[in-house]
Each structure stands twice: as structure tokens, then as C-alpha cells.
Amino acid sequence: MRGSGVGGLFGAVDDATGNSWFEFAARAGHAVSGILHILIAYVIVRIAVGDGGNADQSGALSTVAGTTGGTVALWVGAGAFVAMALWRLAEAAIGVHATEPNGPDDEGASSLLDRGKALSLAVLYFAFAWTAVRFAIGDGTSSGRENAGLSARLMGSGLGKTVLMVVGIVILCVGAYHVYKGVSKNFMDDLTIADNAAVQTTGLIGYVAKGLVLAGAGILVGVAVVNADPSKATGIDGAVKTLGTAPAGQILLFIAAIGVATYGIYAFVMARYARM
Predict the structure, then answer these.
(1) For residue 114, what are the CA distances in angstroms to 124, 190, 237?
(2) CA 49 distance to own-chain centroid
(3) Side-chain half-sphere CA neighbours of 262 within 13 A
(4) Phi, psi of 105 (to 5 degrees)
(5) Is residue 3 part of a domain?
(6) Which segment of 9-13, 63-67, 92-96, 154-158 scores lowest on mean pLDDT?
(7) Number of neighbouring beta carbons within 10 Å of residue 67
(8) pTM for the complete prediction?
(9) Which residues of 161-177 are buried (b: 16+ CB within 10 A; e: fewer)?
């Protein structure tokens, strides 16, 4: 990634992003994300056949924790997420890669938006790392239960309900953006390869599927606030399980599993070909 920092801290950050080992570690974050999405798809299949489970990151990490060498894998995954979070922080500080290979656009609203997105992703990856560490030390809990508990506390006040409604709208918008990015194939701008039919198909299916699941989670947060029912605000896991109660729910769950797994496969493409 080419940065615009000159001297001091920005210069150090710029130099760090030119380190091949730092880039390798950051790319590993995409690979770990891919593994987690495939595991979430596996949990969705289990829910479809009646075996239960949590169809979110906590469910995926719990699956890893229960395997031989799972603790080591969780620590490695946490390290990869931290590296990706630090990379995103660097992008927020010195500029994000451009959609063209000529370098970043350091001016204008587009650059500010890219920096804001990079900062948001940094926070998200730090949260992923923290969750992985908690499971590695045996302190992991269901994200759905934590979300429901937090929602119940927030619903105790008018301000809390407003915050929850805003969160639901934000999640819905993020989901809609994923769908748009998939349908428009704008995700190809993030890659160093072009005109690859297999990658385009994988990204389209993956982004649309994840977007729909996120949108469903956002809608459920709004429903939880309106109905004063915090049990509905359980995130992606709640959205998936609600989908399973719909007519032909089992078929819809299998389709969702395929879509989420496809996003996981696309994450491996990102690990290899993402512009960084």
C-alpha cells in the first residue's frame, strides 16, 4: 500500500505497510475470516437438520475450540485478526489503496469515506481478535446471548431504545451495502485481478448472501425494540434461526449456508489478491 505519511508517526506507519511480513500477517486475517464463514455455514446446516448450534462467529469459534489443537488455532487466528486490524488502522491514517493500481486518492470525500471504512473495519477485526482470545482461554460465550442481554439493559430507557434502533438501522444499511456491492460487482475493485468469471460469481453470491443475513439481523433488532423483546436482538444467529421458521425454512437455511460458505471462499481470494 502506498501511503502519504511524511516523517514522524505517519512515516513509520507508511514504512510498516511496506513490510512483507506485516502484509502476509494481515492477509492471513482474510484467510481466517474465510475459515470462520465456512464454519458458520456448517452450523447453519446443522440447524437445518435439527442439530442446533449458534450460527455466528461465537458458534464457529466454539467449533474450533472443541477440536484437537483448537486452542493453538484460536491464538493464531487472534494474531491474524490483530494484524488485519493494525493494517486497517494504517489505512485510516495514511490512506487506503485506490481502485486503480496507480495508488491512493488522498483528496476529496471519497478518501475520507475510505478512511472511515478502514477505521470501522479495524474496530471490527479487534473485536474478532478479542472474541477468539476469549475462546482460547476458555471464557467464550454465545454472541446471541450477549447481544440479547445488552439489548435487555438498553430497553430499560428511552435513550437505550433509540440507540438500539439506530444500531438496527446501521446493520440493515451495512447489509444493503453488501448486497449492492455484490450485485454491482464493485468488490472487484478491491482485487488485483480482473475479468475472472469464477471470482466474480463467487463474490456476487457471497456478498449478496452475507448482505441479506446482515439485513435480516438489522430488521430483527428493530422488531425487538418495537415489541420490547430483547430475545429477538441476537444478531446473525437470530436472523438465521428466524429464517428457519419461515415456510420452506429448511431449504432456505441450506441456501443461506451455501451463500455464507461462498463468502468464505471469496475471503480466501481476498487473502491472495486483495489490494494492500
Answers:
(1) 15, 12, 29
(2) 25
(3) 21
(4) -95, 110
(5) no
(6) 9-13
(7) 10
(8) 0.82
(9) beebbebbeebbebbeb
Predicted confidence at residue 257, as pLDDT, reads: 93
Contact (CB, 8 A) for 161 and 169 = no
How far apart are alpha carbons 144 and 147 in whole angstroms?
Answer: 5
Is there a domain that residue 229 lies in?
Answer: yes
In total, the chain counts a number of residues equal to 276
Residue 248 belongs to a domain: yes
Amino acid type, 38: I
Least confident window among 109-113, 133-137, 186-190: 109-113
DSSP of 141-155: --HHHHHHHHHHHHT
Q: How many domains does the chain have?
A: 1
Give the whole-angstrom CA distance, residue 127 versus residue 129. Answer: 5
Looking at per-residue pLDDT, the higher value among 193 and 108 belongs to 193
The answer to the question of residue 2 being in a domain is no
Looking at residue 262, its pLDDT comes to 97
